[in-house]
Prior knowledge:
Elements: E1 3-7, E2 19-22, E3 27-30, H1 39-46, E4 58-60, H2 66-69, H3 72-77, E5 84-86, H4 88-115, H5 129-136, E6 139-141, E7 148-151, E8 154-160, E9 168-174, E10 177-181, E11 204-208, H6 221-234, E12 239-242, H7 248-261, E13 270-272, H8 275-286, H9 295-302, E14 306-307, H10 311-319, E15 325-328, H11 338-345, E16 352-355, H12 364-369, E17 374-377, E18 380-383, E19 387-390, H13 400-407, E20 416-420, H14 424-438, E21 442-443, E22 450-453
Helix pairs in contact: 4-5, 4-8, 6-7, 7-9, 10-11
Amino acid sequence: MTVKLTFLGAAGTVTGSKYLLATGDRNILIDCGLFQGFKQLRLRNWAQFPVPPGSIDDVLLTHAHLDHSGYLPLLVRNGFRGPILCTDATRALCGLLLTDSGHLQERDAEFANRHGFSKHKPALPLYTEADAEAALGRFRSVPFHKTVPIAPGLDARFLYAGHILGAAMIELFLGPTKILFSGDLGRPNDIGLWDPEQVEHVDYLVLESTYGNRKHDPRDAEDVLAEAIGRTAARGGTVLIPAFAVGRTQTLLFHLYRLKHEKRIPDLPIYLDSPMAMDATDIFADHKDDHRMSPAEVGAAFAVARYVRTIEESKQLDSQPMPKIIISASGMATGGRVLHHLEAFASDPRNLILFAGFQAGGTRGAAMTEGAKAIKIHGEYVPVRAEVENLHMLSAHADADEILAWLGHFRSPPKMTFITHGEPAAADALRHRIAEKLGWACTVPDYRDQVELG
Length: 454
């Protein structure tokens, strides 16, 4: 059987994950993510898909984050008619993320047209909430660890990847050949999620490299959080945390609950201003077998914040002078309610903008963590005078050492390891380290590269 693997995303970048596996009579797409960040990457979302969507038979999804799932509404709108297979928690979370993405794109286009700051006349959404709903109708849940037949001679199995609730590594069995797609590899000893499962052998490995050239800050996350919140409160400021609604928000709530319970931070009000994050916490509670937190811990942690449900309540937060903690999406400040909070709080040096993980190049989050003095929001530049910090130790991605430790469980090397989902420096650093330390054959593919797997 001739098998070809084409890298349609997450090559030379951390976004747009898409891998097309062609077996001769079947085309399988592993992940279907949006490109985010730099404009030249985002333009790929608007370009014609490299193959006719109708020619794809199945989509297998590692997890719910938009850089892995966010292109699905377009794929379905443009002709894909097959099933989208993923874990049950991923299916539930995509129900939030994809509809929210379509809604935000419609709202942003409407806002741009109303205020006239778009170069496009009229500004159009990439896809709509209705497009997202249509895509969700094609989702099919599969359990972890069960071998699922895709086609004659082709089976799949989903393994725990850590990272976020429901995230999976996907093993594909093509006769005697086994291919593993790591998806986003989580960290060992996470406070909430199971460790990434150990794997002993595959023939081909597609491996993420987000932190391939870095080690996470070894400091304790709660110590750093406590100190940052304390110093901000002491100067009368507000802590604004742009956080990913799925995964990072729930981790932050658990940390903040423990800090408050132990009286390690001032008794500031904590607001969760992300309707999607609120719904995601409910999904977290509903999937108790997919994480290590007890029902009592989940209930206590998620009750630490006051939920802000309406736009009016959200706007009131920006006019309240009292010190407080606001958690709001999105995590890279690319959209959502956090933009209005940045407009209100970024210009005051008493405040703290506290990011909680990787910031992709070209995003507002990356600009701010790199020291930008102003950021553009809704067509206007907002000065950044607030303190800005990034809690890298809260990242849900394994760092370089943790990736190497996970690879150390393999009993034999793959025939080839493809290093993807990383900025060029990170991907090449991980390639070099794997080759030097483990002696494995590995390569960093470019966008739209195609290889034959023999």
